[in-house]
Design goal:
By secondary structure, the chain is mainly alpha-helical. The chain is built from one helix and no strands. It is rod-shaped and about 65 Å long.
Amino acid sequence: MDTCEKSAHNADVWFSAATSYETRANVGWNLMGAHWVLWKMNLLAQ
């Protein structure tokens, strides 16, 4: 593997790691948002 290929590979690995981290963060925020909405609805329903 020459230097150019190696850096392309590293960028690829970094990119997929970054995207999976972002995906996890988005899922976390969406779950929190859904939780909050349910909680709000619960409060209003009382």
